[in-house]
Please model this.
Amino acid sequence: MRGSSFVRFLVAGAANSGITYGLFVILSWWMPPSVAYSLVFLFGIALSYVLNAVFVFRTRASIRTAVRFPGVYLVQYLTGLALLTLLVRLGVAGWAAMPLTMCVTVPLTFVLSRRVLRGAARRVESAPAPDRLSV
Model:
């Protein structure tokens, strides 16, 4: 059921946020916050890929989807930045614009993640079997 995968997506996102924040705090004890943030951001994308593939959409991880998956977060970031900028220019306070932006970017990220992870699996499953040579 689609609803249950969205709930799993929200749970995975909350777990990813908690884990990456904790890792950020720990790393920032030993390195500049900007370096810790950058490392944790990359780790968060990798963790999100694993959680989404295994827990949310229950598909097999592959090199192909792993390479495509960071594009989901690029689209999410650019969409969120554009929407946040637009809302603030329209007079919405930043503190209120962020949750409104998330109302768009969270479902967008779910749809794009599903497309990257499940779409590739469907293409592989529906591909015709290669011809066998008879001997």
